[in-house]
Amino acid sequence: MSMFPITRMRRLRRTIIRPLVQETHLRVDDLICPLFFDETITAPILIPSMPGQHRYPVSMAGDIVHNLFSIGIRAILLFGIPKHKDSVGTSAYDENGIVQRVVREIKKAVPNMVVITDLCACEYTDHGHCGILESESAHAMNAAELDNDKSLILMEKIAISHAQAGADIVAPSSMLDGVVRSMRSALDREGYSKVCIMAYSSKFASTLYGPFRDAADSGYSYGDRKGYQAPITNRREAYRESELDALEGADFLMVKPAGWAGDIVSDICAFNIPVVAYQVSGEYAMIMAACERGWLQREVIMESLLSLKRAGASLIITYFAEEVAKSMTGCSDYDTN
Ligand code: PBG
Ligand code: ZN
User: Fold this and answer.
1) Which of 120, 130, 212, 225 to mutate to test the pocket of ligand 1 (most atoms within 8 A of CB)?
2) Residues within 6 Å of ligand 1 by CB
3) Is 0.85 topped by the overall pTM?
4) Catalytic: 107?
5) How many angstroms does the Cα of residue 174 sit away from the middle of ligand 2?
6) First to last CA, the chain
7) Which pLDDT tens digits describe the chain residue by residue (337 residues)?
8) What does the alpha-carbon distance between residue 179 and residue 312 come to, in Å, rounded to a whole number?
9) Is 194 a catalytic residue?
């Protein structure tokens, strides 16, 4: 018997063989580009904690989306920053609200762009929480308890107004119990049975949303989100949340922050519903900061996205979408050489 290895993995790693055995690919169609629109501005403003990302005025919506579509981006995720906030998030379902106006502009300019709307109250409430609060006494106790069922009614109203404006997919991100079910029946009742629901099913309470809260002006004034977002320690609980959303009729399941939750992405592929990984603002900020300092090379971006695909994600929401789509021009599969 020879003392040398019979199987040599290195044979498959020769430069010309490698592409033949590549198991995971990233295509431009896998990318969803988040965008922030601000009702109070007339020119774009940079988001300090997210270098390269902006808040845009409504007037630019058509052009921005046209540009994204021309580089191959098929879907965008919209966030709105409204002029008015109150304790019950009224401006979130105003038919002339920021998101509703932007959706109409985009659908006029680029009808085939898939428009996904983030559906939450935190940008629209003066306290910054993701729904209607239980009571003022909670405030006094420095804890934030959402009135789940009252908040469900609010989410239904927002969903209907987004669908009316032309959204293709609504993405409830408040982690309310029963939100997928109540939203599905509200949409169906109003004649929007074709509008999909992308459920933020495994949304962990995470510090990685910090830069986003600057971007969307959705920081909370007291308490935290641990009463409604999932604990990062609990894998089985995340599975159960996802299972519930699947049973309630979600068309997509989402996991965030994605980079630290490859196990969850992999687990919930079991439901055979497309899994969406959200590479969040803090992940973007970390990568950008390290690249700006020269501590990491920009290839890290592809590495981060490909590993989410390897975990099983069908789609990835990432602030790198535009940059990555541009780098793929002419060729839909990422060239790993
Ligand atoms: C709204 C919402 C948040 C994010 C997406 N939708 C913030 C939060 O829940 O605190 C985070 C996205 C990101 O960090 O990129 N609820
Ligand atoms: Zn929220």
Assistant:
1) 212
2) 118, 120, 122, 130, 173, 209, 212-213, 218, 225, 280-281
3) yes
4) no
5) 5
6) 37
7) 678 999 999 999 999 999 999 999 999 999 999 999 999 999 999 999 999 999 999 999 999 999 999 999 999 999 999 999 999 999 999 999 999 999 999 999 999 999 999 999 999 999 999 999 987 555 555 567 889 999 999 999 999 999 999 999 999 999 899 999 999 999 999 999 999 999 999 999 999 999 998 888 888 888 888 888 899 999 999 999 999 999 999 999 999 999 999 999 999 999 999 999 999 999 999 999 999 999 999 999 999 999 999 999 999 999 999 999 999 875 444 444 3
8) 25
9) no
Residue type, 106: I
